[in-house]
Amino acid sequence: MKKIVLSGIVIASFMLYSVTKRSQVAVPAPVDVLPPSVSTSSQSHFGDEITAGVDVLVTPAAALTPSETPSTMMSRPPATMPMQKMSGKFKDGSYVGSVADAIYGNIQVKATIQNGQLSDVVFLQYPNDRDRSIEINTFAMPILKREAIAAQSAEVDVVSGATDSSIAFTESLTSALSKAL
Question: Across the strands, what pairs with 122?
């Protein structure tokens, strides 16, 4: 009888801990600057702790569709979707992109155009309700922002480990930049 009561107490304690831990997850503010741990060089930099012993394959986000899974991606020829490059002068102003589904949450960006050039991208929404989503997006968002500004388009490479967020970013930024044409 003691074992049953003790087991019940342990299970109830674990459930209570799980509920309180989930409700205490901090939601960080939208990121619009590079954290100090991300390299600002023109080369992509991935921390050794993330990619140790892993071959990194970067695929242009425009070459993937949101409905694809790793198994369907392996069965199709690469880059079957035409890349949509937005070039030329944009109209100055701030443009909010559409909300894009990133599986574990939504992504929405605001593009700022100055002197006809993409000068800033701010994340208005991004998946941030799970510790892992926060970790992934804190790492990926500055890279996606930097690459978009450098390319002056939504045509950016998928960040390894943040495929869904990268695809949703491309979709939302494409929407915002189409308003600026």
Answer: 110
